[in-house]
């Protein structure tokens, strides 16, 4: 078995951030090239630590769905994925880690395609093409991907009057686009993975298209109205390059171009026994069981199990992902295990493979965590270990006191009103969590659960807990200054 794992950034506030990554995974899954195709994120579920519990394959190909070789791809991702380099052999698994998609040469044709689509019929010889990135001082490679593409298009004889790179936070600034561009027509392509806060809200303000940030992409019907007539020029603004459907091919190109060791180690990994019960069971707010009167499986909200005839029917397992994005009030659900899953639907699936995929969309990695707990291979990570490995803006999170940490966990994790997971981790290797309710405390190896219940487990503190620890550490610092 082989698995493809696509890594994205994700967001706790923007539902559109992870959409392109999932769409590219859906396309590659449709082609049947891998036994498993999954996504993991820095700021969404499943995390890069949890995803290895979800995947059952002994060989895993990891592709960062990022633009540059900067801070995330060189530091954050290898740290969170526990990688030794391009090739890692861990726990009997063979793991390949490729370059990010944004630096692959085939990105050039996507940029050209997007430029032509956004400004159809506009002569290239009378057009300035501007490729926009974020820009950062954290890593000098953060701008390299854009600079490389600018050079490839400029030197490739593609006919543009000029090709320029511009950035949000370092010179040349995209806000100066009208001074940078000399041609009467200007095409601006955001070199971002998703139409998130930067490409959809920040850059339009910097360009002068909008006076203030707009709503998120999924909450607007129209992306942009081209062209825009500003500063005596005609401006065309495109959606982020990472939303291009052909990005799925770029992901596969990165894998095909990866230099594998010869000979490669032989994987010895054996996945734990599958944890899907044969009969009807509950998992969080899901009611799952054999479909009545027909083959396959049926999933619905636990509160809808007695009124199946009135529910909206879905038959595609990927519908589970869409059903879990918003609650009944239309509010984004950044915590998938929050007890606010919307009602009114039923999902009929034909095979156990489809059932597993749907469960992983509703509750990412939860089934795998349960399987490893049953097999005795679950490896909980203490809060101190999680905080201790943080870098960048989170590196001081571990300076909070034990008393503050206990209170923080009780506040963020101690109520089922926020999250339905049961913790498996401790404060540190010696100290248990003392301020959370008994039913939320770490599940021991010999603790039993009802046979028709698959519990939702938490193997380490999530990004919300880490963020709260950072805020507490900042407050401590400010208090010490007074």
What does this 3D model show about the protein?
- By secondary structure, the chain is α/β, with parallel strands linked by helices.
- Among the domains are: 103-243, 3-Layer(aba) Sandwich (Rossmann fold), CATH 3.40.50.1400; 275-366, Gyrase A, domain 2 (2-Layer Sandwich), CATH 3.30.1360.190; 379-480, Alpha-Beta Plaits (2-Layer Sandwich).
- It is 29% helix and 17% strand.
- The chain has 14 helices and 17 strands.
- It has helices at 19-31, 51-54, 71-81, 107-118, 144-155, 177-180, 197-207, 247-256, 319-323, 352-362, 366-375, 383-388, 402-413, 463-481; strands at residues 2-8, 36-41, 59-64, 87-90, 93-97, 127-133, 162-167, 185-190, 228-230, 233-237, 281-283, 286-290, 297-301, 312-314, 345-349, 422-423, 457-458.
- The chain has a 5-stranded mixed β-sheet, covered by helices on one side.
- Strand 1 (2-8), helix 1 and strand 2 (36-41) form a beta-alpha-beta unit.
- The longest helix has 19 residues, at 463-481.
- The N and C termini lie far apart (59 Å).
- Mean pLDDT is 91; it is low at 217-222.
- This is Cobalamin biosynthesis protein CbiX.
- Keywords: Lyase, Metal-binding.
- Residues 376-471 form the DR2241 4Fe-4S iron-sulfur cluster binding domain.
- InterPro entries: CbiX-like, DR2241_Fer4, DR2241_middle, Sirohydro_Cobaltochel/CbiX.
- One of its GO terms (molecular function) is lyase activity.
